[in-house]
Amino acid sequence: MQRIRVKGLTRLAVLLAIAVLTVSVVPYTALAATIHTVSPGDTLWKISQWYGTTVNELKRANNHWNDVVFPNQKLVITWPAATASRGANTYATGSSARDMELMAKMVYAESRGEPFEGQVAVASVILNRVKDSRFPGTVAGVVYQPGAFTPVQNGQLYQTPNANAYKAVENALKGWDASGGAIYFFNPDTATSSWIWSRQIVKKIGKHYFAK
């Protein structure tokens, strides 16, 4: 009986050791998270595409098993931390890490707190200007063009962008022009230039008008 008991304990110890070893070698993926405020027209599928996740992951993260979302609803968005601040490791189409960082800073300075689509639209305006012969042909040239962006003048540009800003830039670089082809944007409540109102307004997202 004693020998049988020892054998049983030995087998249990081996199983426990294997379990511990298995757990120790399973890779741990750190997650980054942000909060998305639902805007009119948003769907779980759209939101999942914006953040590079899936509808099921959104539902799981928010314990929300309905397919319907409502304006102003808050959703927790998670993704692998490695993609939260790509900065130096962007895969974007020909864009350097420095360009992406600069765009993320501008997006954060100009549109943090705005709907995610509006943040992508701000990044899109920068890219649209780079492609337009009336503007400098580089991201840095567009951002630092004298008088072009208030955050350059008041120092807001030099804040640290959040994960949302990087994701917005990634989406713009992948081809989503959320601005509708705009090369200008402004807040009608704070705009001081009368000239800007002469531009053709093509879209309104959150507090910003986007114009050509």
Would you tell me the structural class of the helices and strands? alpha+beta
Q: Give the averaged pLDDT, no decimals.
A: 81
The side-by-side strand order for the widest beta sheet comes to: 3-5-4
CATH architecture of the domain at 86-212: Orthogonal Bundle
N-end to C-end Cα span: 88 Å
The stretches of 5 or more residues where confidence is low (pLDDT under 50) are 1-6, 12-29, 82-94
Order of helices and strands: HEHHEHHHHHEEE
Largest beta-sheet characterization: 3 strands, antiparallel
User: Using only CA atoms, what is the Rg?
Assistant: 24 Å
What is the assigned CATH homologous superfamily of the domain at 86-212?
Cell wall hydrolase SleB, domain 1
What is the total tally of β strands?
5
Q: What amount of the residues lies in strands?
A: 5-15%
Mass-distribution shape: globular
CATH fold topology of the domain at 86-212:
Arc Repressor Mutant, subunit A
Just give the CATH class of the domain at 86-212: Mainly Alpha
The number of distinct helices, counting runs of at least 4 residues, comes to 8
Q: Helicity, in percent?
A: 40-55%
